[in-house]
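Mods, move this if it's the wrong board.
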Amino acid sequence: MPTSTALKEALYTGAYDERLRRVYVTDEAVRAQYDRYAALADEFARLYDGERDIRLFSAPGRTEVGGNHTDHNHGKVLAAGIDLDAVAAAAVNSENIVRVKSAGYSMDVVDLSDLSVQENETGHSPALVRGMCQGFLNYGYKIGGFDAATASRVLSGSGLSSSAAYEVLVGTMLNYLYNDGAVDAVTIAKIAQYAENEYFGKPCGLMDQTACSVGSFVTIDFEDPKVPIIEEVKFDFASCGHALCIVDTKGNHSDLTDEYGFIRSEMESVAQYFGKSVLREVPEAEFYGEIAEVRKKVGDRAVLRAMHFYADNARVEKEVSALRAGDFEAFKQYILESGSSSYMYNQNVFSVKKPTDQPVSLALAVSERVLRGKGAWRVHGGGFAGTIQAFVPLELLDAYKSEMERIFGEGACYVLSIRPVGGTEI
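Not the wrong board. Structure tokens:
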């Protein structure tokens, strides 16, 4: 555990290369991290005591590949950790206080002697820190004070799960600083969901946190959310002749929490018609058999969103099977079907609050124009604003990236790789 000065020397002499390669894979990507982590060490030294022994941590963002808004109703998803991540330099303290200074934000200070929900923290990052600490205690794990400097390349409001990456980063620090790495990735994900639901005030599912915490391509079945079934999906994406692009349409979904909440509550209203709590508990045939009465009770939009749930939940299995069989063309077709369902049935491509503001709709339309018959595209993440996802043939990558950045601005199109590990100490 080196001091800031010693850590930087170790970085530039290659002492961290093996650990960095486990996360960032290529030699080029490893070298690209030197300056980033060195700057983080400098920031820690500026904020706190530079002579303390500090440790490095990383947690990825995620991309949702299949199953749009299925997780919160105990459905199936396909997701992957990506190479855009949140990182931290941290050290324990003896003050029973957690201090986290994220680049571009004010410092979060949480006194561990009071971990009750603070109403004034709703929607703000101190709530996530407080919730993560309480969650660790709820599961019987240790907590304690620490100081941290963090930075993130996971775009806020982008659909890449910046909040989940932050939660997992905090959980990863608690895991290694106070629990010797004994807390498994799924438990950290569950604690992160608890923090976001109960402390931050956002009714999210568990997909984002699991993908960030576990990493790699994963399919997750939330039929029993207390014991989600998580399976790695082995697929050599580099061999398929496509790039994974995330296009940031520059729309912000920070004020759309209620829109996301309506999707979940409306799906659940359909389930409640049948005396169940979530749609996964209601047989699809039973739903369609009663659809005329259901719409009278809960409204047409709730019915349409239920139709999306059933179809997209089934599509996840088809997507996974296609990847495992190496049939990327079939996989792309399922991606297109999922995107159409999100648009028409789930209705999370634009907000009814801002009907003239439709950057996601525009990005999808342009993607269709450029990629028709060759690629695949869909809304990405929560929707309403933020990002789309596209699988782009390599021969069209330059043209696609250029067109998206012409419309949405330089740097709007991210060409990503899939990260093999989730939250970890470097």
